[in-house]
Batch of 2 targets.
Target 1
Amino acid sequence: MSKVLYALKDVEHSYAQRTVLRIPALDIYTGEILALVGPSGAGKSTLLRLLALLEAPVRGTLHLHLGERPITKADARIHERRQLGMVFQRPILLSRSVRANVAYGLRLRGQRDANAQVDAMLERIAMRDLADARAQTLSGGELQRVALARALILEPRLLLLDEPTANLDPHNVHLIETLLREQHERYHTTLVLVTHNVFQAKRLATRVALLLDGELVEIAPSAAFFESPRDPRTAAFISGDLIY
């Protein structure tokens, strides 16, 4: 059985005294692709921010097991947090070239001679011809591929993605999904993916979790989630009959 990477127990999170997330228990395992699905406002992005240790839950415990002992936001050690990457729905890039953006994380780590790594990553994201283009000139799909490359080049053990293909054309959706699938197969990277697209969850995920009103309704292996959901709300969400 795979090792538990995240262990959440009695987790609650609030904004302005409004509870937006209640997770009695959730384990996420090393090497899986977990898709978090649900309508807007269901708590998916909030949960992802907690998993990224950008915020701490107001109640309960969240432990991330990347080293010999679990870490939390208050106890995050730099070496272990470097093993965690995140790609946002609206990435913020430097006002510099594509090459400089992809190399940025390596430079922060003191790795100056990384041309070969950067070239290989630009090849992976099909952007060698745009290596010297300024970030401001890129399309939405190209921006997202650069943001993904900037995370992947650091070789994270864990990658969190918040709607990485939202509002992108089918060509870029295919490229990004292919990159994620290759990353998982080649490097066994654990992926946690927030998506509104149930078809994307079905294509990519090994397990799928449905959130509604900040609560975890159902979590199951992908085949079981889509073919034999236990909760009627899950079946309604998959079929498109759930009006929210």
Target 2
Amino acid sequence: MNTNFTKNLYTRHKGFSLLELIVVVLIVSLIGFLVFSSAVKQQQKTKILDPSTLPSTFRASFKGQGDIELFCINKCKECYVMQGANISPYEGGIDFGKELKVHLLDDDNHFVEVDDLGRIKDKKVCLRYHLYANGSTSQMVIVNKQGIYFLPSYFGEATKVADMEEAKELWIKEDYSLRDSGSFY
């Protein structure tokens, strides 16, 4: 009789009980929720705009949305995005550093500091950055306390350079390669 009882005991416990299945499903669901929610948070997290990430972040955030312009006021601590007639605050973080200066190359290949970028809300605009519908952007050199950054106009990444001469070389090289190539359009 004892052997018969152990046979019944083993035959009864071949599968999982309902309680064990519920516990396993809850644990798997909890792990899945934690992994999924952290992945969603990472995806929704907007990168901080700084001179080195401006082209890539702006392109990724507003790809395929037409002409978009970013402008910053209050010594570049407050930025807005303008699309058509709609102006909305930039939702991500901003870190353009102190004493930001924008430089453009003139026709004589000399850098000129752009001091007047306009006024909005009666406040001086310190930075204007344009993303065009074709994916190209404003070309400029940004100088702040952290360094000198060359921002190319055609699909390149921002480059931190040692000095203004290196920025000029990159600018001229990009202009020269664009004139000799129809690959961008």
